[in-house]
Amino acid sequence: MESQIIRPGYLTAHQTASVLGISLGGVRKLVERGQLTHAGGTVGQRWYVAEDVAALAAKRQTRKVA
């Protein structure tokens, strides 16, 4: 259900989950914990800032290595 066109520099929830290697439920949990915030979209189609997602992915990768 990813038919919505989004602005450059933003990712859908599906894309965010893919980048982070987690499920959509995992994305929701990150939002609930305040580790990620949505930057637009609708209730069913949230957008996330690509730079924020990349930074979170790097942080998570650093934790796995350490």
Strand and helix map with partners:
Layout: E1 10-12, H1 13-20, H2 24-32, E2 40-42, E3 45-49, H3 50-65
Antiparallel strand pairs: 1-3, 2-3
Structure description:
The protein has 66 residues and is α+β, with helices and mostly antiparallel strands. It is built from 3 helices and 3 strands. It is globular. The mean pLDDT is 89.
Question: Which descriptors would you attach to this protein?
Answer:
66 residues; alpha+beta; three-stranded antiparallel beta sheet; 3 strands; globular
List the uncertain runs. none
Rg computed from alpha carbons, rounded to a whole number of angstroms: 12 Å
Mean pLDDT: 89
Output the structural class: alpha+beta
The span between the termini is: 36 Å
- Please give the number of β-strands: 3
Share of β-strand residues = 15-25%
- Strand arrangement within the widest β-sheet reads 1-3-2
Short structural description:
A three-stranded antiparallel sheet has the order 1-3-2. The chain is built from three helices and three strands, in the order βααββα. The chain has helices spanning 13-20, 24-32, 50-65, and strands spanning 10-12, 40-42, 45-49.
